[in-house]
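Risk register update: the risk that structure generation would not scale has been downgraded. Supporting records follow, first protein first.
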Amino acid sequence: MSATAILAALLRRLAPAPVVLDLGLPAAGIFPRLHVARCGVADAAALPAAERALLVGLRDPLRGLPPFGFDRAADAALLAGAPAAWGEEPGEGRDRLVWLPGPPPAALAPLWQDGAWALLRSGPPGSWPGPERGRIMLLAGSTAAVERFDLMLPIDRLAPVLEALHAAAQALVATGGRWQLGKRVVSARLASLTALLEAPAALPPPLVIPAAALLQDGPPGLEDGALPLAGVARRRLLLGGLPPGPVRITLRLRGVGSVAPVLFLGGLRQTASLLPDPDGTARLGAAVTLEGTAAQVLGLALPQGAAPPGLGLLGVEVAW
């Protein structure tokens, strides 16, 4: 179980779970372990041209928004704390968390003024660009591969959030396996939480990503929870950060008929099999080996005009 998977499992168990802005792209962030308010980049101008061209063409299927960093108006609304920009209902009042691959850029300062948390990989100590913060050092992963992250949050939230994360870790431990678990309070501004897996009880359950959570390069809009695929020759879908190694990727489809999409991963065609389900849907699955640390991109292709009018993608499953 990777450190990212453990952190996502802890955050999901908070009540209520924070809403997340994942700025890990184009490398792997915490999506799809956590469905997020938006994925994006902290500094779009610094991206290589090819990566920028790929990301700027992706869209949120519900709102039609590109990743954070590519739409000034939408980005400004999120930085201003607008609930709709964060995917919240008015008055919901959930904590907001920003996943960062490195030190926070100055442009994100309004978020820290508004009390947002930041979760970043541990690096050399430096000054925080905003109000003084508390720090919870998170040690996660396996006993053979420990990773450290820093959760930066308002000082008055450190103690209750630490207790909530520790309770979440105890609930995770209760699901099985052998763990090293611990917490330590160093001061009112510094604490640590350890959640290391010594031996898993079993393979993790499949990761399920609904169509509504998949950034894609087609027109926005869902039909009864499915992403329409009829009338398009190709579609690219952002799967996000997945650990390297062998997995089985399965697309849940409806209205397939006699023509199934051709599946690509990282631009390479994959051998896939189509299996019908009793409820009239179907599963298109392929055994693949994931490599590297970049966010994974799944491609679908259909012969022009061959897709049945009701063809739609309900979601993607990843099984280990």
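Supporting record for the second protein:
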Amino acid sequence: MMMYDGMMGGYGLIFMLVYLGLLVYFFYLLSSMAKSLGRIADRLDRLPSLGGERKNQE
């Protein structure tokens, strides 16, 4: 544990764990946003085949 005996003393390990937790949470949010955007894109792709509403607007 000599790596954590720097300026922050014993709090370096706690800081590192909190930092890694925030990093994992950030990537979790990114992946959930990508999933929901994929669902929205799938719905928009199916929209013209269902009713042809876009052809009527043009």
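The mean pLDDT is 80. On this basis the risk owner (M.S.) recommends closing the item.
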